[in-house]
Write a structure and sequence with these properties.
By secondary structure, the chain is an alpha/beta fold. It contains nine helices and twelve strands. The strands form three sheets. An eight-stranded mixed beta sheet has the order 5-6-2-7-1-8-9-12, with helices on both faces. α2 packs across α9.
Length: 266
Amino acid sequence: MIEISNEKREEKYDFSIKTNAMSSFKHVIGVVSGKGGVGKSSVTAMMAVEMNRKGYRTAVLDADITGPSIPKAYGIKGKAVATEHGVMPVETRTGIELMSINLLLENETDPVVWRGPILANTVKQFFSDVVWGENDFLFIDMPPGTGDVPLTVFQSITMDGIIIVTSPQELVSMVVSKAVKMAEMMNIRVLGVVENYSHFTCPDTGKEYKIFGESHLDEISREYDLEILGKISIDPKLAEACDKGEIERHISGEFTSVADKLEELL
């Protein structure tokens, strides 16, 4: 029988990684969701837009390697270029720096069929090998769930905290719980929760419709002592802006309010 001493069991490993020598961030924020389909990427993209409008130097790391959507939302068609100093991120129209696997693929529709460890290592390289420059904010668009990539990001990258994106369905209380408990396990601060697809306001009558059911966010936030950063309505104009690659032109008072609350927390 192999015996493992208590000293060995208690040994802790440091998985943290550093940025490129020419890069720095004042704030690093992960945007996570317990499940897919809640609009996490559009929330990430709009948070970067809002902070950029406030005058902050802002960047987005697309960590959803198998489902990258950040470049399309910003209308980016070019590719990232490698230099002697590292890979250069692509800048959007308003100067937001982006890195995504779609900026490295020959065709943006090419599938990424990789196993978990390769996905996780790619995200680490996006953080450490990309020449980000000096930025105030880095938003990391995480893949949904609690798998290899979120685990690697939590272990490897020092973050100010995470924003959990959810939707009104009752089952969301379960997936939010998973995200919160993973953050607690990894000693990561939960900055707050954004409820996306909260309601739809009819443009003709002004009446609100709860298309995805009644919100359970208030009770979830009380249970886990979470800050509610905002409840975002269903906005066809945002979907259109993402499809056209014009998210930087989209104006939303709801997202501005979320950005204001985030600014106060940091």
